[in-house]
Write a structure and sequence with these properties.
Length: 417
């Protein structure tokens, strides 16, 4: 079983290149099913969710693989509607984008219920509401979802009841070839939604976002293109937590500062020194870290995907703080793991309350992707050695974590025994 071994107490110092954003590379990969032509996509992180998604595309009959370190070539002209490796679909939330992509191309799709990090229910009623609004029939049976349209679809107005990244993305994909202008209201505006829109428009789409309303003008055909994925904002903000926990000073290269700005303001209020450059941000932990109280919300506010990491960082502050998760109210499995390291952390409903804590190395289990990142944060600042198991969760979302941390002075290794 693979485990991460981290020797705490070493200051991180140097430069790190931030990878492409996993959560926008994934919808873009599935969106290639709408383009019966060759697409070359750069800045794709080498993480397991990406490998699995390329495998799913190959199972559909597409050509899809890495041709360079972080560049994939995808050509789905020979793809069919039949998913061969349904077991992979159940492993990831992102495979839900197959619903929108295959529906748009074949007017039908039958897939396993998508998986995803196990921090509570991951409903898809907003997705299905949108498909029904477009005129499709949606049937959930035996753990599968079947979506079909028997007639030519007309453009509609879809109003999502909740701000949902996945439902927004699926509605953009599903409506791309529908004649007229499909209007999608109450959309998510995370950068990964805009990344997908930019990709589809570069392929010949005519999609316009006006704040939380997206207008999808139906395209007759999309054409292959060469595209570069946005930088990963959550990876960058996670490294800011690593720096804070380790008294570090690190320059993060290849970032999009605009995407980070709101969250970086919280780090500034904690006393961290943040200097922004065009596509870089210099982060330095000050002598003392102040606590902060945060409530997660849809972009551009504080991201739920940084909640566990911030909770770990708050252990190292002089006065503690709290993180209230309004997006995923049960995303607290990491709390018990931090307690194993001596964290003084309690939960009240959907809020973690963290007091200043003396953390010591311990054996912990990553319970999901960002929980794993929280344990790495805590381990970097703890006294002594820590071991984190279920590393598969962590490497599904953080490219070259061991190499990157080692390059800036982290004492971390991956062991398999
Ligand atoms: C995406 O998940 C991300 N996953 C998540 O990142 C991220 O936490 C989330 O967006 C919010 O930013 C990927 O991009 C692969 P949502 P998604 O639909 O699309 C509720 C990570 O760590 N909801 O925006 O599944 C839902 O329960 C992962 O990288 C419904 O109620 O999230 C949640 O409370 C974890 N019904 C809220 O909306 C629906 O039909 C936001 O969910 C859909 C969502």
């Amino acid at each position: 079983m693979e485990r991460l071994i981290i020797e705490g107490g070493h200051r991180l110092y140097g430069e790190v290149n931030i990878s492409g954003m996993k959560n926008s590379a994934l919808p873009i990969i599935y969106a290639c099913l709408l383009v019966k032509d060759e697409c070359i996509i750069h800045n794709i992180p080498r993480v397991s969710d990406i490998y699995n998604s390329l495998e799913i595309l190959r199972g559909l009959g597409a050509d899809a693989d890495f041709i360079e370190r972080n560049t994939v070539r995808i050509n789905t002209k020979n793809a069919t509607a039949t998913i061969k490796n349904q077991e992979l679909v159940s492993k990831m939330r992102a495979s839900s984008y197959l619903m929108g992509a295959l529906f748009a191309r074949f007017n039908e799709v039958c897939i396993n219920m998508p998986g995803g990090c196990n921090f509570g229910v991951r409903p898809i009623e907003q997705h299905l509401k949108g498909f029904c609004c477009l005129g499709a029939t949606c049937i959930e049976k035996d753990g599968k979802i079947e979506i079909k349209a028997d007639k030519k679809l007309k453009s509609q107005k879809i109003t999502l009841d909740k701000i949902s990244v996945g439902a927004t993305i699926n509605m953009v994909l599903a409506s791309i070839f529908i004649e007229g202008t499909t209007i999608i209201e109450n959309c998510a505006i995370e950068p990964h939604v805009d990344d997908l829109i930019c990709f589809l428009n570069k392929c010949g789409g005519k999609i316009i976002r006006k704040n939380r309303t997206i207008l999808v003008n139906g395209a007759n055909k999309l054409y292959g293109t060469d595209y570069t994925v946005f930088p990963d904002m959550i990876e960058a903000l996670t490294y800011a937590c690593f720096v804070g926990a380790s008294n570090g000073e690190v320059l993060l290269n290849k970032v999009n500062v605009t995407h980070l700005r709101y969250s970086l303001d919280f780090f500034k209020s904690m006393g961290m020194h943040i200097k922004e450059y065009e596509s870089k941000v210099h982060i330095k932990k000050s002598t003392v870290l102040n606590g902060v109280n945060v409530v997660t919300a849809p972009y551009p506010l504080f991201p739920t995907d940084l909640h566990p990491q911030l909770s770990a960082l708050l252990c190292f502050t002089c006065d503690g703080g709290s993180v209230k998760d309004e997006i995923f109210p049960t995303r607290f499995a990491y709390v018990n793991e931090l307690r194993k390291m001596g964290a003084n952390i309690t939960t009240i409903d959907n809020m973690a309350v963290i007091k200043p804590s003396y953390l010591f190395g311990a054996r912990t289990d990553a319970t999901d992707l960002r929980a794993g990142a929280a344990l790495v944060t805590a381990s970097l600042g703890a006294q002594g050695n820590s071991e984190i198991s279920n590393v598969n969760y962590i490497i599904r979302g953080y490219e070259c974590l061991v190499e990157k941390l080692t390059s800036i002075g982290g004492k971390i290794k991956l062991v398999n025994n």
